[in-house]
Amino acid sequence: MTAGTDSPLTRKLSAFALLNESETAMLERLHERRRSFSVGRDLVYQGQSRQAAYVLAAGWACSYKVQADGTRQIVDVQIPGDFLGLRSVLLRTSDHSFEPITDIEAIEVLSDDLLKLLTQMPRLATAIFWAASRDEAMVVEHLVGIGRRDAAARMAHFLLELAARLSLVGLGGRDGYDCPLTQYHLADALGLSAIHVNRVLRQLREKGLVTFRDGHVSFEDYDGLVTLADFDPTYLDQEGPLLSGA
Amino acid sequence: MTAGTDSPLTRKLSAFALLNESETAMLERLHERRRSFSVGRDLVYQGQSRQAAYVLAAGWACSYKVQADGTRQIVDVQIPGDFLGLRSVLLRTSDHSFEPITDIEAIEVLSDDLLKLLTQMPRLATAIFWAASRDEAMVVEHLVGIGRRDAAARMAHFLLELAARLSLVGLGGRDGYDCPLTQYHLADALGLSAIHVNRVLRQLREKGLVTFRDGHVSFEDYDGLVTLADFDPTYLDQEGPLLSGA
């Protein structure tokens, strides 16, 4: 994948702002510091200070927190175009860890470069702020899911959210998408046991709504799944740019 | 309370950036559009579009989402100096509602004014981005709490987080603080029943850790409560400014 207008980050931020040439060029320059990370090796660990942020260019990752008793909560999953650890640059110390779910390619954005970008390219900064707001809206949905949705609605909502996010960067749609998450990832993300995850996926499949098998999610009845999950994608704000060109 | 250097918002943002005169003056100007709201009347409702954001100047509020089945999840509580609906200006449609918990005073920030501030005063914008990142870190903690902490640790963590946040704006500390939350608010925030909330508060009191009675939280054994909750306030990033003066 090339940098610039074709990169997932540029595609994503373009949903918020029509980016001008110097803004696109700045995003391209970011792509020079591209690094590879292997599955299972944390990019950023909980408690680490003054680290870089990353933009995921290819592959999947997840952010998580581990409790003193060893239990783990996955906070969110990251797909191409997503920031990893953006919040931690501003808050100085990472409050969570990032783990590659597949082998990944990620663009390193040094803490000082990011602060410079934020304070010197305000329109781009606002677009990044939009992306961060969207990330927060997703964490809010996950909180509501764990607090108030039953296991089937929680799973359905999570799979539909991923479909909408992937479609924004050209990696999926209403038919389905490739998904490297295991039942253990789903369990840690949804606050369920792995056995419960299996049972819920079987129920959704038997109802003819969705099948998750061999690394692929297939929607058999997209609208039925939306109804079950009470899924309203407004919080993802993918309907076109708010900031016009400048 | 006067505007400018004494306002809770200025106090809070000063923990991130040493603000210069024009930045402080801009925050003062915001304070001109000050409005009062009564308990129980929502400021912003779920699904509302193109609304203003608010900065809470006095009193307490909460953000929440209601599910189709009528259950409610409180996402966070807001105290003086906090933004209400900042995310919704960028995302255009509010993904949640805000309700005053007490009578409140709030500064209205029109959507266009906020976008102008973000794109024209980048250092102030970065400070606001910091505040939003901190809000997100709190939602993440609430997610981890509901997903992975038992009821006592969840309650202890929540009460300690509020103490740290209130101390930043001069409204509380390690002794305790005034707190207008009812057992119903605590239940909706922590994913517990009101009866369960009562039982947990009684346990914490009988262990000599904390008493919440007549609108006041008193820490009897602050360090013991920190241990029980495994509370590490690093995510609140209150240790002093990252951006120096300019």
TrEMBL record, chains A, B:
GO biological process: regulation of DNA-templated transcription
Pfam families for this protein: cNMP_binding, HTH_Crp_2
Keywords, sorted A to Z: DNA-binding, Kinase, Transcription, Transcription regulation, Transferase
Extent of the signal sequence: none
MF annotations from Gene Ontology: DNA binding; kinase activity
Cross-referenced InterPro entries: cNMP-bd_dom (IPR000595), cNMP-bd_dom_sf (IPR018490), HTH_CRP (IPR012318), RmlC-like_jellyroll (IPR014710), WH-like_DNA-bd_sf (IPR036388), WH_DNA-bd_sf (IPR036390)
Ranges of residues in domain Cyclic nucleotide-binding: 15-90
Domain HTH crp-type as annotated: residue spans: 149-223
Name the UniProt record assigns to this protein: cAMP-binding domain of CRP or a regulatory subunit of cAMP-dependent protein kinases
Species annotation: Alloyangia pacifica
